[in-house]
Amino acid sequence: MLGAVFGDIVGSAYEWNNVKRKNFPLHRSSTRYTDDSVMTLAVAKWLMEDLEHSEQGLINAMQQLGHAHPRAGYGGRFRKWLASNNPQPYNSWGNGSAMRVSPVALYATSLEESLELAKKSAIVTHNHPEGIKGALAVAECVFICKDADHLESAKEIIRSKIPQKYDYNLNRTLDEIRPNYSFDVSCQGSVPEAIIAFLESTSLEECVRNAISIGGDSDTIAAIACSIFAANKEWREEQLMSQFTKYLPDDLIRIMDKFEKLVYHNNPT
């Protein structure tokens, strides 16, 4: 989850100022946390506080943190959902379901539990099949990476399983994607690209640079890619990630620290 927050914060400065290269500063004057971090932490809060993991418990957590951080950059339909007294799913295929899902895979003790929680985390807003599929695919990648002894073995499993199970084309390279890739907030148009950014990475810093270098919805693509990479304990690079917690307000830091302590039995920040 800390990987997702790291990717979001680094990518925030490039969402509306795309770069098509890997050589760029990780910190900029416009660097900040966005809705990706807030909703990822809302999912973590739900997992810790609602032991039944009910849909209403998730809605409550998302609305609570959304109201506490109203200027995080929410999309129009999601902003209306946050403000509703009776929020209903709105058939979204957007990548919001995928960017917030990583805590469920870190929390779950089996792939089956991870996918069940991932679907729950998506359908309160993203009940379109593509919105659900994006969340499931990212959750499975995160769980595979968490469960693997070595990063390269996780990549091999992801390359073999994800295309067959989710019909995502992972045979492209970033060099092939980068020239013509444009802003795309759909799961089907950004989740495979984020997974490829992870697959081509050998370090967390390279992962965030890969993800941002294709352009598009930079903060979300980086959040997804880095959430997968950082799930492998061998490659968490906590010192790098912790440099970016200074951009988070105290209430979000407390949720993140509590969740990281729960799933990793330590307190990285």
- The percentage helix is 55-70%
Q: Unreliable stretches, pLDDT < 50, 5 or more residues? A: none
CATH superfamily: ADP-ribosylation/Crystallin J1
Kindly report the average pLDDT value: 95
Measured distance between first and last alpha carbons: 12 Å
Tally of discrete structural domains: 1
User: Which percent range describes the beta-strand content?
Assistant: under 5%
Structural Rg: 16 Å
Structural class: mainly alpha
Give the topology string: H per helix, E per strand: HHHHHHHHHHHHHHH
| CATH topology group | ADP-ribosylglycohydrolase fold
Query: What is the overall silhouette?
Result: globular
Outline the biggest β-sheet: none
Q: How many β-strand runs? A: 0
By CATH reckoning, the class would read Mainly Alpha
Mind telling me which CATH architecture this is? Orthogonal Bundle
- Number of DSSP helices? 15
Organism: Pseudoprevotella muciniphila
InterPro entries: ADP-ribosylglycohydrolase, Ribosyl_crysJ1, Ribosyl_crysJ1_sf
Pfam family, one: ADP_ribosyl_GH
Protein name: ADP-ribosylglycohydrolase
Descriptive notes:
The model has no long low-confidence stretch (mean pLDDT 95). The longest helix has 19 residues, at 129-147. The protein is globular. It has helices at residues 2-12, 35-49, 55-68, 76-83, 96-99, 102-107, 111-123, 129-147, 151-166, 174-177, 191-199, 204-213, 218-229, 238-242, 250-264. The chain has one domain (2-264): ADP-ribosylation/Crystallin J1 (ADP-ribosylglycohydrolase fold), CATH 1.10.4080.10. The protein has 269 residues and is mostly helical. It starts with a helix and ends in a 5-residue tail after the last helix.
